[in-house]
Design brief:
This protein is mainly alpha-helical. It has eight helices and two strands, in the order ααααααααββ. Strand 1 and strand 2 form a beta hairpin. Helix 3 packs across helix 7.
Amino acid sequence: MSTYLPYLVSWMQLYSYPVLWLCVFISAVGLPLPTSLVLLAAGAFASLGDFSLFLLIPVTITASTAGDSLGYWIGRRVGSRFLNWLEQHPRHYIISPRAIAHSREFFDRRGGWAIFLTRFVFSALGGVTNLLAGADLYPYPRFLLSDIAGETLGALIPLVLGYIFGESWEAIGDLLGAFSGLVFALLLVSVLTIYLIKMLRRMAFAQAERLRVATAIEEIPVHVDASHHSITASLPLPESGI
């Protein structure tokens, strides 16, 4: 459990929805706050009648969407200029222009899933994903669509679980944290496995290509001219189009 959690829960009980909105907003921008645990606690308090579950849901979604959008626009205003500068000044690059181009191409193809999953499965990566989406000039309407869909699940899951389990919300928080860590570990292993398979395939293809070239060279017929003490290779002539 985070050391900030007792303070956040106490402030939420004292000042109600505004503190919850501010907490979720700041967390969405990128500050590491235990938002999921706060939402579990809010759902538990709603089961006791201290909050309304139907108000908690829109408060959470609007706060997280606003924070994500701010992070996106920070990345677009600052990060995109930095990446453009790197592409225009390759002799000063930290990241190669080719890597930047591949990053933008990847985000254009798979960015929607990255945004969606980091709203509730890998929420710790949400702030970084927002900055990358802006820096890579990912279209904002597509970003907003994936963001709202993901944040809706990111709000409903902890709020409803907290509402259902009530006083046991802390134990549920531990289970959610363990589940998120397990999924992240499985995803990391899958990515590394795919990368390793691709690397082995490239190595095998390169080896096969070297063997093919070596075999082709060995098969070239060689003619020895004893009178002139020279060796010439009989190379096949290109076919004439006439």
